[in-house]
TrEMBL record:
Keywords: ATP-binding, Nucleotide-binding, Transport. GO terms for molecular function: ATP binding; ATP hydrolysis activity. It comes from Parapedobacter pyrenivorans. Pfam families: ABC_tran. Transmembrane segments: none annotated. InterPro entries: AAA+_ATPase, ABC_transporter-like_ATP-bd, P-loop_NTPase. This is ABC transporter domain-containing protein.
Length: 319
């Protein structure tokens, strides 16, 4: 059975007349990478602060690793590593020395702190630069060092706020792959808040869409696409050499039997097949077996940007 690691129940935060977080209900399970998505001011940071016990909810509660975050902020902080969007280091100290210091502040002895810091610098790809001063690190290197700092206390949960901000595309890919492999290998639960839909889509098992302090929807990208685009999340268009007008009905019936297919349309030379799963190969092979000469195949899967657009199309500033 899946183990709940983060549980939010009717979590609400009001500042004077402004409701920043409004009756939030959400469960995140062990080992999951969950993406928090939403426009500026949606309430993501306020939710994170309540999870860390850094601000008190007006009502409702946030539970992390079985503990109430408001009542046990210190115990929660031992289990949770938080990487803010702008991490600060001692710039005059090397990456290694920064990390050893954090290890010691978290209760490790000198030898353990040295050993663990070296291992982590290797894990995050900073071994070659460990003796360089942190002040001379690039933005991407600082994020890696920040991740190593978060990991040195062996957290069960890590919370990342805009972790890819200002990193170049190849750095982003490497950083996200690193987070994904750490989560999968060590069963770490990750909460990732970001405006970058493609980054979220790349690594998150599930996403939650926030607006005005409310969670509008949450689920896998496929399930959100299915609920929004009721014909299904995947569209395959197969262009054949000859228009299929007279054969229409039997070919439609044939394609409708392919697993996941929800709708079939024929427009001139094109078969347009909508499905709940990516079944392009099966669609194509059915048509080949039915004697159709295929000229072109086009695939479209609804991604997070389609979903986001559909949810927020009436919102002023989608990203
Ligand atoms: N200390 C505060 N006092 C008053 N209002 C606040 C305070 N902190 C946040 N808010 C308000 O609460 C709402 C939610 O803010 P929050 O920072 O949680 O949003 P966010 O989703 O993290 O936005 P962003 O993506 O811009 O970081 C905003 O309208 C903000 O102005």
């Amino acid at each position: 059975m899946k183990e709940s690691v983060i549980v939010l129940r009717e979590l609400t935060k009001r500042y004077a007349k402004q409701t920043a977080v409004d009756g939030l209900n959400l469960t995140v399970y062990r080992g999951e990478i969950f993406g928090l998505l939403g426009p500026n001011g949606a309430g993501k940071t306020t939710t994170i602060l309540m999870l860390l016990g850094l601000t008190e909810p007006t009502s409702g509660y946030a539970e992390v690793c079985g503990m109430n975050a408001t009542r046990n902020p210190i115990d929660v902080k031992r289990k949770v590593g938080y990487l803010p969007d702008n991490v600060g280091f001692y710039d005059y100290m090397s990456g290694l020395d920064n990390l050893v210091l954090i290890g010691r502040l978290n209760g490790l002895g000198d030898t353990d702190a040295q050993e663990r810091a070296n291992k982590l610098l290797d894990d995050v790809g900073l071994a070659e630069n460990k003796d360089k001063k942190a002040g001379a690190y690039s933005r991407g290197m600082k994020q890696r060092l920040g991740l190593a700092e978060v990991l040195i206390k062996q957290p069960e949960v890590i919370i990342l706020d805009e972790p890819t901000l200002g990193i170049d595309p190849s750095g982003v890919r490497e950083f996200l792959t690193l987070i994904q492999s750490l989560s999968k290998q060590q069963g770490i639960t990750v909460l990732l808040s970001s405006h970058h839909l493609h980054h979220v889509q790349q690594v998150c098992d599930r996403v939650g869409l926030f607006v005005d302090g409310k969670l509008l929807a949450n689920g896998t990208i496929d399930s959100l696409a299915r609920s929004l685009f009721d014909e299904g999340g995947h569209i395959t268009t197969v262009v054949v050499r000859e228009a299929a007008a007279e054969k229409e009905s039997w070919l439609t019936a044939l394609l409708q039997q392919v697993p996941g297919v929800t709708a079939v349309a024929i427009e001139g030379n094109e078969f347009i097949v909508k499905a709940t799963e990516n079944n392009t190969a099966l669609v194509v092979s059915e048509l080949v077996n039915a004697g159709q000469a295929i000229e072109e195949v086009r695939k479209k899967s609804y991604g997070l940007d389609d979903i986001y657009q559909r949810y927020f199309e009436h919102h002023e500033e989608p990203i």
